Each structure stands twice: as structure tokens, then as C-alpha cells.
Amino acid sequence: MTFWFWVSLVGLVLIQPILYASYEHQKLRERYGSERGNKIGRILGTVSGYVFFALWAGLWMAPQPRFEIPLLREIIFVLPVLFTYVSLKIPIIHLILGIAFLIPGAWLGLKGMTTLSLEVSAQHLPREVIKSDIYSRVRHPQYLGGFLSHIGISLLLSASLSLICTPIVLIVIYFLCRKEERELIREFGDEYREYKQEVPMFVPRLRDKKKRSPV
Q: Cα separation of 10 and 175, whole Å?
């Protein structure tokens, strides 16, 4: 019953070296030349990125034991999936909690992607340090949005193994972001270092960091 879940989880981990390589634009350019290196980086980024998110979705969608929060059990929300032939029954408490995570997660992901552009998001090939809009609040809104959406969808689908593996997903995301930032520092130097000091990775500050006056 859980075979495809474990395939997705193992695949999610095994795809990391290719994702890491897709961030190494300078190394690729040094090895293959500027034009060819950028092309290889774009291909690696696009392919590994889509495979990564397909495997991530597999964690939610794969057959696995379902759980139920013991609260408001008698209220069930029925969502038609394929006209009237297939429906999805969601406990109301799962629906409430799932939407509470999914809506901000989806918003962060879409906001980050549109601010950065779909091309840059897919190919991992930035042209400049983006500091505006949502990127003025957190450095990785797309991964933060994906993480929140992971929790939300796991709750909506009552996917027990997916929810249990949330810490693994967080670790994978964290090291991906660390790798990306190392390469961005190589690419943009002090500009990205300053941005990194000013803007948090995932958790936005409640108030803007005040600049201290020189003594």
C-alpha cells in the first residue's frame, strides 16, 4: 500500500545532487564555456525542478494510511473530484486546518514565482539579486510556500505518512536553500551577503530591522 510513497520519498532525496548541480552556474561556465554552461544549467534546473516537485506531490498522492483528528468527526465535507463518479470526503477539522496552511502557502509560492519570473524559478538562473516585493520579507518565499502547502495538502488528504515526513521535507528544503545561497554569493558577492543579513530565510520579521546610527 505504501510502495509509491517510499518511491517518492527516496526519489526526493536522490534528486538532490542534480538539483545542487543546477545551481552551480559558475562551475558549469568554467567547465563548458559561458553559453554551453548556461544551457546545461537551464536544462538541469528545469528537469530536476519538475521531477523534484512531482516526487514531492507523490508524498501526498501516494496510497498510504489515513488519519483522522478526533474533533468534529461527525461533520464531513464531500468534494466531487470527477463529476459525480468520484468524491473526496474530508473531515471538517482537516478542511479548516488544511486551508489555513494551503492558502498562505499557495500565495507565497505564486507571489515568489511571479516576482522572480517563471523562467528564473524553473531554470535556477538568476540575473540579479531580487530584493523587492515578497523578497524584501523572506529570501525563499517559494520554498516556504511549498512547505506550508505540503502541510495543508497532507491535512486535506489525511495523508499520515506525508505529514509524519514533514521534518524530512523541511531538512531537504533547508539544505537546498543553503546550496542556492552559496552559489548566489559566488555569483553576486557582497550584494547577496548584504541581502542575506537584512532579510530572513523563512520567517519574516514582525517589524523592519532598524538601522543603527554610527557611534
A: 16
Q: Which domain holds residue 104?
A: 3-198
- Helix 141-156 and helix 34-61, axial crossing angle in degrees, nearest 10: 20
Give me the long-range contacts of 183-186 (CB less than 8 A, separation at least 24): 183/23, 183/24, 183/25, 183/26, 184/126, 184/129, 186/26
What is the per-residue pLDDT across 132-190, written as a single tens digit (0 to 9) for each? 899 999 999 999 999 999 999 999 999 999 999 999 999 999 999 999 999 999 989 99
Joined together, the cell numbers standing for residue 59 give 508524498
Q: Is residue 208 part of a domain?
A: no
Rg of the Cα atoms in the chain: 20
| CATH number, position 188 | 1.20.120
pTM: 0.87
